[in-house]
Predict the 3D structure of the following.
Amino acid sequence: MLDRLRGRKPAKEVAGILIPASEHALHTVRQRCRQMVAKRALLSAGASALPIMGVDIAVDIHLLSRLIEDINAEFGMTPQQIEKLQPKLKVATYSTIVGLGSTLVGRMVTRELMLKILTRSGVKLVSKNATRLVPIAGQMVSAAIGFSAFRAIGNRHIEACVKVAEEMLKMQAEDRLVE
């Protein structure tokens, strides 16, 4: 229902399978998510340009947590969606996620997790705050750093979701050959 209110099509569900059902569908979801990342990265950049310390981090945490949840939903990889999978596929999905070392695919997004992710890009956060001390030019540089850091985190998450989805598509194709 929320997906329809947000103007999106929910991930397709076919016999307990919630990931994009084909390579074409996967490509479409990837493109849609990349657009989502770009739009929210612009919002993050706008918050980074504000001369008020701390506002950008609060905005980034909020935007990033919503973004990660939305990307997971687009790929059919929220914890709730994964729980609906057939048992064999559910185990394979979690195994693939763990194998990739992803901290965000298929997980509940918390404030603490977002702080951890943003802290990993700590150098960018420190330089972003330092550049803010220089009027106007510093704010522009801060916004550019904020945009690129946000976009990099979002796009990295999309690619992790794509890898998991590709593995699930391979597994489904193998299962169909066995049947």
Summary: The CA atoms of residues 16 and 87 lie 9 Å apart. The chain has one domain: 22-87+97-172.
